[in-house]
Amino acid sequence: WLLTKNLQTTTILYYTFFLPGVVLHEFVYWLVAGVLDVRAERAIAYPEAQAIAELKLNFIKLARGTGKIKLAIISIAPLISGLLLIWLITNSILNLDDVLAVIDGGSLNGIRAAAAQLFATPDIWLWVYVTFAIANTMSPNREGLRGWRPVLMVAGAIIVILYVVGIGQQLFLETLAVPITDGLSRL
Q1: Which of 9, 15, 68, 161 could join 4 in a cystine, given CB atoms 3.0 to 4.6 angstroms apart?
Q2: Global pTM exceeds 0.90
Q3: Sequence-ordered alpha helix ranges (H) in the chain
Q4: In 3D, which of 87, 95, 97, 180 has the Cα closest to residue 131?
């Protein structure tokens, strides 16, 4: 806005910068809605001028009366697909596992070797940009978060039942804790 002094131009530039993520978000939203047999009321439209720098990814509107569970699934699908795509890019293309293994030594030479290995990746800046754009556009829509209340209530009830029965601690601490923390640290 400081450069253009025009909210509409700034909004268009903002959406253009994040275009790979916007396209992925809206495509996955539309695709999952179609798979769940929910009709989209409006197709992709021109972004409206915004006074604040916030991506409003609401180009595709779902039909009124969409069930809460379907709405929850549709709203979380872009986040899951974005996380999977980021994981694929960082592990298959950028090879961050190998780079982090080189850095683990902690020496200055290890850091230099890791940086050299990372920057040897073909088109690294393109992949970093795509990853950045996807990571910043995958959050669920606010309206879709309302559908998560019943899902979280059922999940909470199941967790409480598992702890009351006595297998909850064993299941979560011994089985799921390591993969969850490992996955979160990789992301």
Answers
A1: 9
A2: no
A3: 7-17, 19-35, 68-88, 96-103, 108-119, 124-135, 142-145, 148-165, 168-169, 177-186
A4: 87
